[in-house]
Amino acid sequence: MPSEIAISIESISKVFKRYAKPTDRLKEILLPGKQRADEFWALKNIDLKIPKGQTVGLIGQNGSGKSTILQIVAGVLKPTSGRVWVNGTVSALLELGSGFNFEYTGRQNVFFYAQLLGLTKSQVESKFHEIEQFAEIGDFIDQPIKTYSSGMTIRLAFAVATQVNAEILIIDEALSVGDMYFQAKCIERMKEMKQKTTILFVSHSISTVRNFCDRAIWIKSGEIAADGECSVVCESYQDSIGKLKKSLGKNNRHVSDNVVAEDAYVFIKKVATDKKTYMSGEDIEIEIQLDFFKKLISWGVGILIHNSSGDIVTVINTIRDDIEIQEEHNNIYLKIEKNQFIRDEYFLSISIVDNLALCPFAKLDYCTSFFVEIQKNKFGIPVAEGFFRTNHHWSFS
Known about the structure:
Blueprint: E1 5-19, H1 22-30, E2 37-51, E3 55-59, H2 66-74, E4 81-86, E5 90-93, H3 106-116, H4 121-135, H5 150-161, E6 168-172, H6 180-193, E7 198-202, H7 206-212, E8 215-220, E9 223-228, H8 230-249, E10 266-273, E11 277-279, E12 284-292, E13 299-306, E14 312-317, E15 331-336, E16 344-354, E17 360-373
Parallel strand pairs: 3-7, 3-8, 5-6, 6-7, 11-17
Antiparallel strand pairs: 1-2, 1-4, 8-9, 10-12, 12-15, 13-14, 13-16, 16-17
Domain ABC transporter: 24-246
Protein name: Polysaccharide ABC transporter ATP-binding protein
Keywords: ATP-binding, Nucleotide-binding, Transport
């Protein structure tokens, strides 16, 4: 393996056997040649090379195989087939409490865990004060780990794992257990380590992977779905999740039949946008055409905008805007100026209501949609995440 490569994985696969009954495992051992287990392939022919000093984020849904890769690299699991080379010392934080004896005190576990990771007793003694200061668990350092909260346990484990000066640091979703303050503190510690340490990092926080890592790898059903620049891979993964949510959300999405009821006062004839795809910051123009069958003395128009997951992003209503409509208008136009939506597909639901928005005269759900792309900054990072981007201005003094 070339000296500049920290981790090399060649065609590794990992199968786990699942038995319907415990006795089936014994029968398989005693009666070889007869398969009594269902096979689950957690990894399928993974090829991967990670250079020294690179920070790599693994993303993907639960059960996709991310943790299995980390466990194989750390030496906790052996692959069913394929080969793994690790060039350097490894410090791994794989799961809550791994490496700890829950009957020991925090102090005892620092020595126990650090020596498991390769430090001598004298090295642990010289680093103990810094470990204690970073963990910030106070007098609990001399209490058994079994009395700790999950957050306190991960604080101590991370403090030890990042003090052994390993050449390769492996972290598997552990930071999600800690509070926001400690998560930020851990990220700062890892930033300090980036220049001299190879970091393999699993997280469900896409923004953390995008902003912290040099490279992202999307694992899907035991295979590499995408590998490369963080913003590109993360965007592909988010698109996939959005499509999944969208397909699931369709079960709860009732699209109205656009038919004229016998006793209808008004009929929503047409709903359309001037374009199907916008960039964030562009104006969005919505046109609504109505046919009236009975006179409405005072009425209003409401527009609900849902995202692809079915969440209501915003409600726009003439009554909320203190606009009184007392005459028939067959054509209604709405301009959303300099839209601040994030990247997603959006659906419009339209209602014509009385002047108190209590009685709908006509309603059309999910009648049309549009897509919004979002700009990226000079580093290729989307300028906003969440539900929308606010208009804002920075000032400094």
